[in-house]
Amino acid sequence: MANENHLEILRQGVTIWNAWRKSNPDERPDLSRADLSGQNLTEINLSNANLQSTNLLRTFLTVADLEGADLEGANLVKTNFTGAHLDNANLRGCIMHHADLGFATLNGADLSNSDGSDAHLLESILFGANLRGASFQRAKFREAILTGADLSGADLTHADLVGASLEGALTEGASLPPLFDQDGAPPSE
Q: Going by C-beta distance under 8 Å and a sequence separation of 6 or more, which residues neighbour residue 12?
């Protein structure tokens, strides 16, 4: 359950929140299970925050710092993460239909068993990310970097991987679009 003091600080706005984070670098924010849907949290510092099962439906988290945040089981439907930093974040089991993760960094992030159907990951960086068992049907990974990512058992049916880098990605049992083979390589010329 969310810490009421943390929610009260957040209600005062992103500027107050970020100043509080700067003054309290060792305190781990707990916003778990909170309803933050529809809010504009652009450029907020939620690094290492507990956001488990939080409702972030249609929330703006553009250029937000979510490095190391725990978003397991969160509702991320139509959430805007454009340019956000989600390195080493826990996104296991998230529902992220139509989420916009364009230009976001998700290096080492855990998206296993998440449902990102129709999500946009244009030019996102997912170096070493875990997408094991995730569903990203019809997702747009155009020009994304998935180097070293674990896509084992992931469903990328009808995903747009044009220009995406899957070098060294684990793809065993993944459902990839016809453009790619089971090694994650584009067809040879």
A: none
Superfamily per CATH, domain 1-189: E3 ubiquitin-protein ligase SopA (2.160.20.80)
Residue 45 β-bridge partners: 65
The helix/strand count (H/E) of the chain reads as 2, 0
pLDDT tens per residue, range 70-119 = 999 999 999 999 999 999 999 999 999 999 999 999 999 999 999 999 99
Could you please report the per-residue DSSP string of 92-124?
A: TT-B-TT-B-TT-B-TT-B-TT-B-TT-B-TT-
**Domain residue spans of the chain:** 1-189
Which residue matches tokens 């469903």? 155
Are 98 and 119 spatial neighbours (Cβ–Cβ below 8 Å)? yes
Q: Give residues with Cβ within 8 angstroms of 11, minimum separation 6.
A: none
Residue whose tokens read 């529902």: 95
| Residue whose pair of structure tokens reads 């990328």 in the numeric block | 156
For the entire predicted model, the pTM comes to: 0.92
Q: Residue 72, Cβ neighbours under 10 Å: how many?
A: 20
DSSP 51-96: -TT-B-TT-B-TT-B-TT-B-TT-B-TT-B-TT-B-TT-B-TT-B-
Would you say 140 and 162 are in contact if contact means Cβ atoms under 8 Å apart?
no
